[in-house]
Write a structure and sequence with these properties.
mainly alpha; 7 helices; Arc Repressor Mutant, subunit A
Length: 161
């Protein structure tokens, strides 16, 4: 009895597999492309972490410098903004900023409109480290670009189907 139920289930699964419709194909997932994309991201992040450590920074300090410099063109970045950009809690960002200020990588400025708000500024020392790291990151991205472009194209093609 148990054997016949297994056989029926197996036959039903086989029939279901053969009855794939066009709608099913449009919902197909390219696991290989996703895995390859995730691998490329992890490889880049691993490179980035190692480069930051070699430059005498923690990966989080490097990310903070980049976020402050990269997002402060329209208006200065506050400690609260930094917490949001790094996806950390406010008190974690405060501790990070404290350490980076002691290292001479950041300066604090009281917001002229709201004295409770602290704005962040990258110092000359922080700029030098960030510039050096950014150059090698762009080189790494240039090298990875053809592979990433192929993966992203495959995502676009699978969406078009």
């Amino acid at each position: 009895m148990l054997q016949s139920k297994r056989q029926k289930l197996r036959k039903a699964l086989d029939r279901a597999g053969k009855k794939r419709t066009k709608a099913d194909a449009s919902h197909a997932v390219d696991y290989g492309a996703l895995a390859l994309f995730r691998f490329q991201l992890r490889k880049f992040l691993s490179f980035s972490e190692a480069a930051a450590l070699e430059a005498g920074l923690t990966p989080q300090q490097h990310q903070a410098l980049l976020a402050i410099k990269g997002f402060s063109s329209a208006r200065p970045v506050s400690v609260g903004d930094l917490a949001g950009l790094l996806l950390v809690r406010h008190h974690t960002a405060v501790e990070l900023v404290d350490r980076m200020t002691k290292l001479g990588l950041l300066g604090r400025i009281v917001d002229g409109d709201d004295s409770r708000r602290i704005l962040l500024q990258v110092t000359r020392k922080g700029e030098q480290k960030l510039r050096m790291l950014s150059k090698i990151h762009f080189e790494e991205l240039r090298a990875a670009s053809p592979g990433l472009t192929r993966i992203l194209r495959s995502f676009r093609r699978s969406q078009a189907r």
